[in-house]
Amino acid sequence: MSDLSAAMTAVDAYLRTESDRFVEELQDLLRIPSVSAQPVHKPDMQRAAEFVRDQCTQAGLAAEIIPTAGHPIVYAEWTRAPGAPTVLVYGHYDVQPPDPLDQWVTPPFEPTVRDGRLYARGSTDDKGQMLTHIKSVEAWMKTAGALPVNVKFVIEGEEEVGSNNLDIFLEKEKQKLKCDVAVISDTAQFAPGVPAITYGLRGIIAVEITLKGPQQDLHSGVFGGSVANPANAAAKLIAALHDDKGRVRIPKFYDDVVPLTKKERAEFARLPFKESQYLKGLGLKKPHGEAKFTTLERRWARPTCDVNGLISGYTGVGPKTIVPAQATIKLTCRLVPNQKPKRIVESLRKYAAKQLLPGIRMEFQDHHGAPGVVCDLNSPYMQAAREAVAAGFGKKPVMIREGGSIPVVGSFKQILGVDTLLLGWGQNTDNLHSPNESFRLEDFHGGIKSSAHLWGELGNGSTKAAPG
Ligand code: BES
Ligand code: ZN
After folding, report:
1. Which residues are bridge partners to 62 per DSSP?
2. CATH code for the part of the protein at 3-201+372-458
3. How far is the CA of 128 from the centre of ligand 2 (A)?
């Protein structure tokens, strides 16, 4: 037996004996309601950061909490493998708001196991997935007393609100964060039994548009028809966002879009995807989107524009006859690689201003933005990742793109000059951002095992002499 396979055997055995404790510790983290968007949870953000720091310390990493203008970042490292590659692991301990609360079978911050799934807000996105890498480090440290690679961990608390303070940290600590490759587990497998590596993500812009009319709500009989209604104006603006072929009508929106290649389209088409099943899982009968593109193309490689929230007028029970004083539209566009977030925001701002009814004033807030990314499929790191995922899940991964966004991936490329391995252990059916979010325990354990093997594969020599 080679040194590596002997070490891996010991690590795998450790993972088996400690597996229940790992789940319990994940549950402890899930009990902390670290909702980054809601100011009342500020103390919980600190508590969650402390919990993650302690997990890192317990695993054998040197860990600290770094304050930011927003929520704190946890930084941890172990760098005593000279000559071996250095891997930067990123994750986030913040979660989305749990609403609508009445739709949860068990409360979002009371983690519960049912049918092999751990239910709680943040279970898959991203506390459970992030923890897999800390546990795999622990397994190596407790069995071999060392890691085969150098690791640096950045676990932040603002991913779900756009990571606005992270780039400042990355710029400032560029030297300390020097690495060969980054690893993130915050995406999904293609399906249960079909592990995947994600080589592309969409980017995003998020804005909030408030349309203001009369100084206060008015009687719609007394005044209606003589003044512009901000809710009607919002509807007009929203209707102007798409043509009837599903294309976005914001000027210059498609200017920088790189078209899908024939090869990539063929590869998407080869994946085991059943549209009827996909629609059924969503309670739908028909797909929708940009004409001439398949569902996977629309989800992964075409830009979009979606209203995420719409607030106006009377929303209580029964009728109420008013012209509301204002209307607010929360809106995001998903972007594909090469589209420039700033350019799209400016183009949208101008276009929205042109749609206004007379007498309506617009306030336009730019919340956050991040570019779309595609990563190198042929790097030696990618090869190591394929082997590691195959070891963890018992099957070779398929290569996919995904439609969600992880802002830091673009920042790692731009600021640190490294590609990211997007190794998602979750499933699209985990209800992330939705009620009843869950993480399959087998995916949690498969993720820990994959991660442990990744350290072995990356440290195995094949990647040491990687170019760059
Ligand atoms: N984990 C998701 C991103 C994701 C999910 C990527 C599934 C691929 C597949 C992440 O936590 C997330 O939701 N990100 C936000 C980013 C935004 C707030 C800047 C998103 O995509 O909406
Ligand atoms: Zn996430």
Report:
1. 77
2. 3.40.630.10
3. 10
What ranges make up the beta strands (E) of 355-441? 361-370, 373-374, 398-402, 420-422, 438-440
Cβ(187) – ligand 1 distance below 6 Å: yes
Rounded to the nearest angstrom, the distance between the alpha carbon of 224 and the centre of ligand 1 is 42
202 vs 244: CA distance, rounded Å: 23
- pLDDT by residue (tens digit) across 411-456? 999 999 999 999 999 999 999 999 999 999 999 999 999 999 999 9
Any atom of ligand 1 within 6 Å of the Cβ of 406: yes
Q: What's the CATH number for 203-257+303-370?
A: 3.30.70.360
Find, among 151, 149, 197, the residue nearest to 4 by Cα. 149
In one-letter notation, the amino acid at residue 115 is D
Beta strands, E only, 103-172: 112-114, 117-119, 150-156
* Exposure class string for 272-287: b at 16+ Cβ within 10 A, else e: ebeeeebeeeeeeeee
Rg (CA), the chain: 24
Best CA proximity match to 290, nearest among 279, 281, 282, 300: 300
Encode pLDDT of 144-201 as tens digits.
999 999 999 999 999 999 999 999 999 999 999 999 999 999 999 999 999 999 999 9
* Residue 430 CB–ligand 1 contact under 6 Å: no
